[in-house]
Amino acid sequence: MACVITLGLASCGGNQARTSNQVDEESNEVNIQAKTSNQADEESNEVKIPQGWQVSKKVDDLTNDVTAVQAMLFSNTVIVNRDNHTFRLAIDITYGYSPITDGLCNSVSFALYDTTKSDDIHHWKFSDIKGSGILAVFDNGPVDNTWSLIERTDDLSNLYMSNPAMANAFIEKIKTSKTCKIQVNLDTIGMKTFEFNCQDLQWGFK
To answer: pLDDT of 85-132, one tens digit each?
Structure first.
């Protein structure tokens, strides 16, 4: 099985970056299709994806203090390549220790997951050209470019907000919205918009 959905309270970066040769070889085989969740379930070999926010906590076994919390949400939108592999964007909100603040704070990351029932795992990464951020629309409002320039991992598998103020601003937007659209720049694809039902996030961490 290509994708086992677990909340490990770690970085959302489960994807591995491909070499440039692999990108060249695979780019000619990709036929991107945007589909609804129902279409993906009917037409693809996709594993069952959890609906809504999936929240897990890590608790100190001595003090019972919460030391980390993670909330993950998968997009309604999927993309499908010619090999019938489906991919969803995930929003990963984490409250945990940060070396930047030397304490507990919020961070947010984004990653693309292969959610196909197969041992043949495909990987996608963010573009290395203008692929260092997101554009967002909340509840069909105006385009919000607050996070158009954020950090990314060296292998381009994740975008993330390690700055607590930036992460908190995004979380507050999510908490007060029912839906959101996140646009990212993907390798060999270009700009792609993913839709989320983001309501009901209960998050009181700062």
So the answer is: 999 999 999 999 988 888 999 999 999 999 998 888 888 899 998 889
State the pairing for strand pair 78-80/66-74.
unpaired
**Is 87 strand, coil or helix?**
strand
DSSP state of 46: B
pLDDT at 206: 86
- Tell me how far apart the alpha carbons of residues 53 and 160 are, in angstroms, rounded to a whole number: 18
Provide φ and ψ at 165, rounded to 5°.
-65, -40
Interatomic CA distance for residues 118 and 123, integer angstroms: 13
Whole-number Å distance between alpha carbons of 115 and 131: 22
Question: How many angstroms from the chain centroid is the CA of residue 112?
Answer: 6
The residue that leads in pLDDT, 73 or 41, is: 73
CA distances from 9 to 26, 92, 94, 97, 142 (A): 32, 10, 7, 11, 32
Strands 86-98 and 103-114, bridge-based pairing = antiparallel
